[in-house]
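User: tokens in, sequence out, please.
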């Protein structure tokens, strides 16, 4: 009877103590979040509750297992399994904690900073650093757990380390593109060439940088399509970054009109219309005749806006307004298609 009750009591007490510790830690974080609602770190750290419980339980069971006095032939296997689970849960705990700290850091910086470009740069850097830490922890903990579960692999590991030079060369050649993307991701994160939230034009597509990882970059196209590209592309090929140097941008509208167009009146109407638009930031505007052909003229209207979204809306509105105004006030200024009368040849005599 004692052989059954003793293990049950030991395991039950161990789990009860670890659950109580986890609940106390979660309650303290909850109170700290209620007392300081502006500080999001305590609330974010509550995400580590589950991995913390697993870590405490596996560590406690690892040390209290001998007290249960279970007569098994492979006690060392059970201890190795508990140790491996403790290492995996510890890595999970660190990943959750790193995510919470990174998100809290970005939130605090975003509340203080007035430059959105710096906020996007920090967001990009924290995202890539978090992914690097997660990848390194996952690989390291998986390797340690495998060595604990399969001790016979330690000899194999020693021989692999002895030939690490040759393996490194082979792996470097095989993973050349992966390593190139990894280095490109680090250059993007700390080189400030492109950031999450930037408006770019890539391969003829206009969109916003939505995600940057160690291997690929996702651009959200204006029509909600996603363009996924390797990060090495942005270090080897040209692209347009409309957010570089600030989100302000100047848009243009081209109109092809007749030579009789009253350009001065059109210019005045453009200025009056821009003053009525909230998406015009007031920095600059202009209307010029940029080209002429035997059949008409080319008119370019330019206007500035706060960001790429506003300038797109403003360009479409200006184009519609100018064409509608010309159609109402000066219909003769709209482009004409030159035609000529062609006489039909006389029917051939029979």
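Assistant: Sequence out:
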């Amino acid at each position: 009877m004692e052989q059954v009750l003793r293990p049950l009591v030991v395991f039950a007490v161990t789990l009860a103590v670890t659950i109580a510790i986890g609940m106390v830690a979660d309650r303290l974080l909850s109170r700290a979040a209620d007392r300081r609602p502006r500080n999001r770190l305590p609330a974010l750290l509550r995400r580590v509750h589950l991995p913390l419980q697993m870590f405490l339980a596996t560590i406690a069971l690892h040390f209290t297992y001998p007290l249960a006095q279970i007569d098994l032939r492979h006690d060392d296997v059970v201890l190795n399994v508990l140790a491996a689970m403790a290492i995996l849960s510890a890595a999970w705990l660190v990943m959750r904690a790193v995510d919470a700290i990174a998100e809290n850091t970005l939130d605090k910086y975003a509340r203080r900073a007035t430059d959105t470009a710096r906020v996007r740069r920090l967001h990009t850097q924290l995202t890539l650093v978090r992914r690097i830490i997660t990848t390194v922890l996952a690989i390291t903990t998986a390797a340690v757990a495998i060595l604990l579960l399969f001790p016979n692999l330690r000899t194999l590991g020693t021989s692999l380390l002895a030939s690490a030079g040759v393996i490194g060369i082979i792996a470097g050649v095989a993973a050349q593109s992966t390593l190139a993307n990894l280095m490109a991701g680090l250059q993007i994160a700390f080189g400030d060439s492109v950031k999450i939230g930037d408006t770019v034009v890539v391969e003829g597509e206009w969109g916003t940088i939505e995600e940057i990882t160690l291997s690929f970059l996702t651009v959200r196209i204006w029509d909600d399509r996603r363009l996924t590209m390797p990060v090495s592309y942005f270090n080897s090929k040209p692209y347009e970054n409309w957010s570089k140097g600030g989100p302000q941008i100047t848009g243009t509208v081209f109109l092809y009109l007749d030579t009789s167009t009253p350009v001065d009146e059109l210019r005045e109407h453009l200025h009056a219309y821009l003053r009525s638009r909230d998406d015009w930031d007031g920095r600059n505007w202009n209307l010029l005749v940029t080209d002429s052909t035997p059949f008409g003229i080319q008119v370019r209207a330019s206007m500035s806006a706060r960001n790429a979204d506003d300038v797109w809306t403003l360009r479409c509105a200006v184009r519609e307004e100018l064409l509608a105004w010309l159609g109402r006030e000066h219909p003769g200024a709209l482009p004409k298609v030159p035609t000529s009368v062609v006489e039909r040849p006389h029917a051939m005599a029979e």
